[in-house]
Write a structure and sequence with these properties.
alpha+beta, 436 residues, eight-stranded mixed beta sheet, two-stranded antiparallel sheet, Beta Polymerase, domain 2, elongated
Length: 436
């Protein structure tokens, strides 16, 4: 069995080396638009310092890709032949992170530059690597040249390197051509590359949504069949990928692509089971649209609100439609939410407690916001709740999605907030509360 896996890996690595050009395309500074003025000063400092210390240093990945596309990069990643400890010794403000693959984070003021040692295949690299059933579990396998690293890149558009020594670009996998054609294409055999790291399926979706690119047919075809491999990924890592998919300004497109390729049900199986209900589907689509709009308008977004919406349909379907004698709705909601969050964390996406707590508060507020108090003082007290605004916005979201039974309450609270006279009583009530 071990020899068969080893043979498969060798064939995969040979396939990768065949696709990576032995003689890459070199593009001199005069033939491309990646200027140092478009690279952050912190990234330039790291590149220059590594080069000055006698190491090779290249800008690679999204930073290069986005500048070539005329976009503003979110961050800049650097690769070098220096080992992690050597990188750390070269910078005072550096710390090493990661277990699966060790990275160096170099801090300049508030900016963090991620620096990685050249990677290599598990067949010819040096270091510690572990593969189980074709999936890379530990990946601290280092290479000595940029050629080794290029063979380990996931997509062709991410295998373009900026050389700080002469300001040229090095293209190992026709990434420049794929950028022009606006295509997402994996390097190597897609099935083997997805098995190595199933998160690459989510990355393909994210890049297609973010860049408005098309996924190449050979890259897209295996995804529905291999979607179940995401069950092997640590839930905490999936949580980080979910945030990147939905909180980067392209949530609507990401959601549609995830559903199209059968990936959404792997991340949120309980929610996916509710999407046949048009109201549930509308609610998810609406929160994605609203999130994108807020990001577009430079307004803050919170993971708790988005995730509260994503898990609301399976929670709602377990709540009684009408008050039941002897059943405390608040206690019932808490019980269902805890069970739902625990199950979700154990099997798919691990949502940390710092987010699950405000999620539950938003859900609990739905009961209080849909119960009109005759005593105005109680309504004013609810306005002081730390999550009131999120709870109110969530109520509006439910109304937009078509939950008719909550529309009258949403309108009532909207009218209350629009009443200027509500400001003074709230302030007076706060003062009285402090005196007590």
């Amino acid at each position: 069995m071990f020899s068969r896996v080893k043979l498969t890996l060798k064939l995969c690595h040979l396939n990768l080396q065949n696709l990576i050009k032995k003689t890459p395309t070199y593009i001199p500074r005069t033939k491309h638009n990646l200027s140092r003025h478009k690279i952050s000063q912190a990234a330039l400092n790291v590149l220059y310092q590594l080069h000055k210390s006698g190491y090779q240093a290249f800008l690679v990945g999204g930073g290069v890709r986005d500048v070539l596309l005329g976009r503003t990069p979110k961050d800049f990643d650097i690769v070098t032949n220096a080992l992690p400890e050597q990188i750390k010794n070269s910078f005072n403000s550096c710390r090493l992170i990661g277990r699966r693959f060790v990275l160096a984070h170099v801090r300049f003021n508030r900016e963090i530059i991620e620096v990685a040692t050249f990677r290599a295949t598990h067949v010819d690299g040096k270091g510690e690597g572990r593969i189980e059933n074709g999936q890379i579990i530990r990946d601290n396998v280092y290479g000595s040249t940029v050629d080794n690293d290029a063979g380990r890149r996931d997509f062709t558009i991410n295998a373009i390197y900026y050389n700080i020594s002469d300001f040229s670009l090095i293209d190992y996998a026709n990434g420049i051509e794929d950028l022009k054609a606006r295509i997402i294409k994996l390097i190597g055999d897609p099935v083997l590359r997805y098995k190595e790291d199933p998160v690459r399926m989510l990355r393909a979706i994210r890049f297609a949504a973010k860049l408005e690119f098309t996924i190449a047919p050979e890259t897209a075809k295996p995804i529905p069949k291999l979607a179940g491999l995401l069950a092997n990924i640590p839930p905490a890592r999936l949580f980080e990928e979910v945030l990147k998919l939905f909180l980067s300004g392209h949530a609507v497109k990401s959601f549609k692509l995830l559903c199209q390729y059968g990936l959404f049900q792997q991340l949120f199986p309980k929610t996916a089971a509710c999407l046949e209900n048009p109201i549930s589907l509308k609610l998810i689509e609406q929160v994605m649209f609203d999130t994108d709009e807020r990001i577009k308008n430079d307004k803050p977004v919170t993971p708790a609100f988005l995730l509260a919406a994503l898990l609301w349909p399976p929670l709602l379907c377990q709540l009684p439609d009408k008050p039941v004698k002897g059943v405390n709705l608040q206690e019932k909601l808490i019980e269902i939410s805890q069970r739902l969050l625990a199950r979700n964390a154990q099997q798919r996406v691990a949502i940390p407690r710092r987010i699950t707590v405000p999620m539950q508060e938003i859900w609990l507020l739905q009961l209080r916001l849909t119960r009109q108090n005759k005593v105005k003082k109680k309504n004013l007290k609810l306005l002081e709740h730390s999550q009131f605004r999120a709870g109110y916005d969530f109520l509006l979201l439910r109304s937009k999605a078509g939950e008719n039974q909550v529309t009258k309450y949403a309108d009532w609270w909207t009218d209350l907030l629009a009443d200027r006279n509500v400001v003074a009583p709230v302030k007076r009530f706060r003062r009285r509360k402090k005196i007590k």
